[in-house]
Amino acid sequence: MVLEAKNISKIFYNSAPTQVLDRVSIQVKKGEFVSIMGKSGCGKSTLLYILSTMDTDYEGELWMDGALVTGKSPDYLSELRNKKIGFVFQFHYLLNEFSVLENVMIPALKLAAHTREEIEQRAMEKLRIFDMQDHAKKKPNQLSGGQKQRVSIARALINEPLLLMGDEPTGNLDQKNSALVFDKFKELCSSQNQTLLIVTHDQEFAKKTDRIIEMEDGKVLIP
Amino acid sequence: MKRGLILEIAKAMMLARGKQSVVAAVGVVFSISMFIALLGFMNGLNSLLDGLILNRTPHIRFYNEIKPKSKQPIELSKEFNGALHSIRSIKPSTSRLAIYNSESILDYLKKDPRVLGLCPKIATQVFFNVGTLDLTGVLNGIDWEQEVKLFAFQDYIVAGEVEQLDQLNTVVLGKGLAERMLAQVGDRIQITTAQGSQIQLKVVGIFQSGLGDFDNSNSYASLATVQKILGQSAAYVTDIQVKLHDLDQAPALAKEFAALFEVDADDIQTVNSQFETGSKVRTIISYAVGVTLLIVAGFGIYNILNMMIYEKLDSIAILKAIGFSPKDVNRIFISIALIIGLLGSTLGLLVGYLLSVLIDQIPFETDALPTITTYPIDYNPKFYLIGGVFGLLTTYLAGYFPAKKAASIDPVEIIRGK
Fold first, then answer.
1. What residues contact B310, with CB distance under 8 A and at least 6 apart?
2. A145: which residues sit within 8 A by CB, 6+ positions away?
């Protein structure tokens, strides 16, 4: 079991308390391509950020790779994210101060499991998967939206994560780029047994995944 | 590896905001260089002004003061013991100005390891005869070799040669005194002692101490000359001036020796306490101004880091999302502050030194200070150390709060807020 959420609840206290998540329990197995579907405001993104360990303000338990994650220190969670989770956002979020290649390298440099030369080589390999090797020396702001998203997926994969998460990774892309990104996800899943958990409101996208977790009003309809 | 990465990110963020970072560093450079130049200049002036007095002041001076005995005979009398004494109009008896047993005191002091050196001296009131006029003044009998060695006497000789005081009946006149007598080196002048004897002296030099009043009335001759004029023996000395290895011991030693030799003793701290106070106040003011400058530069860095954090919220969020801990983010911004501080401080110390050298070249000539030709600068390494440490400290503090804020940014809020 790569990821297991047990009875996760979260309440927003803005003006009036709102139950965003209500005892959500899900499981993701190794090599699965899972999508979380639902209308906007159903709590799917909130769930994803809890699952990504970035949001720690919730009730319930989160297990990852057989270990309890809930209640761990920020340092532990940072390390966990670095090592085991690759994250792709709706907006590409590359560091404009660094080149495309350096952006891909940074999580690996942070992990420091390999030498800089090895990391550079690996980063180039990842860029090659997404056909971005020719843009390695460019700055992110010289790329198009689709290109940026491909780079950020390459970055998410650099540390060979246990789980690749995406928050509407195709939400900001045109048809052609969307299809390209989806095909790459599918390919990763089938060829490298990569586990993927993608939040989307795109029905077409979700239909093609192995399993759909459908949410409504903070509850899971189809687990 | 990890520290290298943090420095790399810090560097990249600084380069992305290059102009602002440079402005922040220039602020530090400016304040540190001003701090160095200000303190160097102030302390240079301080030691100059102190030197004006303190160099020429003995650490301890022994002399015999003419005053009524502290224990009058009636108090020693057993008959009136415990009674109320009322004898009016007591006068001091004729006592000698000379120090009793001066030769053995000199011998004793020479052997004391705490004593750097000593100068016996005779001070006597004389009249300088100029035509029909008599100018009152002081003739000092000195051991010129010791005076040169201990009190930099040579520095104040503006004409003639002090070595010629070795000859009998020679004199070095104060500049003001020489001008009033229209005397030049090589001229002969006539003096009358308080006892009435007259004598001719050859002028071999003119001195200028920088204290106008002093120069208007003082003159120097050898001990032998003055002893001869006064008709006294070679043991006749009115003052013994002592220079110590450690100036701070002066008050204690003055007391010790005064009791031992049964003479009056003044120490330099008591006589010149106001100079030390003045120096201290000036130093405090220059430190205060310098530290204020540094704090202002610190605020500059604080502002720029805060702005940088607002501009880089996205980058901070992404760094956290891909596995940088709050501590790492904190270190990145502290590093930025310290890089600015380190570059600014180093350059500031250098510029401060150059500024000091520049000030050191500016001509500064005044009649009061014959040995000074340019503005005085103190190149004490202490100032550079304090400036450097303070520079780094302020930049660290300026970076501390923004870095803390950056570390506490919630990435979810930033990422979802888009």
1. none
2. A92, A172, A173, A177
Tokens of A141: 């702001």
- A149's CB contacts (< 8 A; 6+ apart) are A88, A92, A169, A170, A172, A173, A177, A181
Rounded to 10°, the helix B326-361/B18-54 angle is 50
Half-sphere exposure of A28 (CA within 13 A, CB side): 29
Torsion of CA B163, B168, B174, B180, to 10 degrees: -140
What residues of chain A score a pLDDT lower than 70?
92, 222-223
Instruction: Say whether B15 and A107 touch across the interface (CB within 8 A).
Output: no
- Tell me if B15 and A93 make a contact (CB, 8 A cut-off): no
Q: Which residues from B are below 8 Å from A52, CB to CB?
A: 321
* Phi, psi of A174, deg, nearest 5: -80, 175
- Residue B104 and residue B262 in contact, taking contact as beta carbons nearer than 8 Å: no
How far apart (Å, rounded) are the C-alpha atoms in residues B47 and B50? Answer: 5
What pLDDT sits at residue B171?
A: 92
Query: Does this model's pTM top 0.90?
Result: no
Q: Measured between beta carbons, which residues in chain B are less than 8 angstroms from residue A110?
A: 2, 5, 322-324, 328
Length reported for chain A: 223
Q: Give chain B positions within 8 Å (CB) of A75.
A: 325-327
A47: helix, strand or coil:
helix
Cβ–Cβ below 8 Å for A112 and B2? yes
Supply the ipTM of this predicted assembly. Answer: 0.89
Q: Do residues B305 and B403 lie in contact, with contact meaning Cβ atoms separated by under 8 Å?
A: yes
Q: Which of B105, B111, B94 is nearest to B62 (CA)?
A: B105
Instruction: Provide, as residue numbers in chain A, all residues whose Cβ is less than 8 Å from the Cβ of B322.
Output: 81-82, 87, 106-107, 110, 155
- From chain A, the residues in CB contact with B321 under 8 A are 52, 54, 81, 87, 89, 93
- Compute the C-alpha angle B166/B167/B171, nearest 5°: 85
- Closest CA–CA distance from residue B409 to any residue of chain A (Å): 11
Q: With the C-alpha atoms ordered A174, A178, A181, A187, is the resulting torsion angle positive or negative?
A: negative
Residue B172 backbone phi and psi in degrees, to 5: -110, 125
Task: Decide if domain A3-222 falls under CATH 2.40.50.460.
Answer: no
Beta A195-200 vs A33-37: how paired, if at all?
parallel
pLDDT for position B358: 92
**Distance between CA atoms of B389 and B89, rounded to whole angstroms?**
66
Looking at the DSSP bridge assignments, the partners of residue A200 are: A37
How far apart, in whole angstroms, are the C-alpha atoms of residue B346 and residue A52?
44
User: Cα–chain-centroid distance for residue B310?
Assistant: 50
Tokens at residue B366, please?
Answer: 């005044």
pLDDT averages per 10-residue partition of chain B, 418 residues:
79 85 87 88 82 77 80 80 82 74 86 88 90 89 87 84 87 91 90 88 88 88 90 87 85 86 83 75 84 82 83 86 89 90 91 92 75 82 88 87 88 76
Task: Please say whether the beta carbons of A9 and A60 come within 8 A.
Answer: yes
Cβ neighbours of residue A146 closer than 8 Å, sequence gap 6 or more: A173, A174, A176, A177, A180, A181
Distance separating alpha carbons of residues A223 and A25, to the nearest angstrom: 8
The length of chain B is: 418
For testing contact with chain B, the best of A48, A72, A109, A153 (most B CBs within 10 A): A109
Of residues A158, A3, A190, A6, the one with CA closest to residue A82: A158
